[in-house]
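Work through this protein:
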Amino acid sequence: MTEDFHSGLVTLIGRPNVGKSTLLNRLVGQKVSIISPRPQTTRHRILGISNSEGAQVIYIDTPGIHSAKQKAINRYMNKAARASLEGVDCIVMLIAANGWHAEDELVLKEIKKQNIPAILAINKIDKLHGRDSLLPLIDISISKQGFAEVIPLSAQSGENVDRLQQSILPYLPVQPALYPEEQFTDKSDRFLISELVREQVFLTIGQEIPYAVAVEIEKLEDTKKLLRIEAIIWVEKDGQKSIIIGKGGAQLKVIGSRARSEIERLYNKRVYLNVWVKVRKGWSGNEQHLRTLGYDLDIK
């Protein structure tokens, strides 16, 4: 390790569905955070660790800051996102290339409370039909003040992500790596597996099921050649359970098969996955239920 090795914490923050999780996975080079087209897919603070020859960057993926506060889970996600701004070395705020929105302004307001260098990443430039609107958006973003740099990029294609990585490094302290080189996240196997199952619920069911879906890993046995997993998909209503199971269990089989493939890809071994669907009425609005499902409600 060289004497000028940099290591530090960088928070990725933005409103829901601006591509924070896609960017995290791109930066780490590994699937750490699940992705779906639905806003608020990310519910927890997730660390993704990127190692290179001269640096270790610990990226923090956050739930999208949003205005909805009616349920305990919404309050938890906003609280988790705001807490992730404290004690870091650099902040990367993401907006979409289609322009600033009211919830972007909420995020910017939180960033301005911190005395921490902030970089603005204008994401999803690959979605633009032309780049004519990009320069005016950059000018508008610069006028917001407080950004050390404004970088247009595409987390999906990787365009300009290397520029973001280079821009972050000067803000990280010179110090040894904070995590072992082989570690790519702070999350447990149970957490990663539960998220991969939940991701397939979102991707398979589409818009039919609201966000009141959680996954709990009841049993996890790891042998040299096989991962044996027992998982529960929790919903809030009997009707939601019926939709996820599908006619003759067809929908649940698809979810289980796709989740198994993703888990095998992550762990590079065969997986036996058994999935049940159960009802826990009102879990997303009940703090006690949230705690039993792994939500850290003690975040300051």
Notes: The chain has nine helices and nine strands.
